[in-house]
Amino acid sequence: MDIRLTAPRRETFLVSVVIAILVILGMIVPLPFFTGYALGLLLIAYLILLAGVLLDNL
Prior knowledge:
Layout: H1 10-28, H2 32-36, H3 38-54
């Protein structure tokens, strides 16, 4: 089984990093949306990054 990994595009990487930073900030300072859904949003950020690594041109 040959899995080809590619570097994600800059936009994909930045979207996942921004979501992760907002979640971390939401854990320090209570933000209404990011504090309540921190684990789910962090999972979404890493799934976006994973999709960018596994799929070409994403």
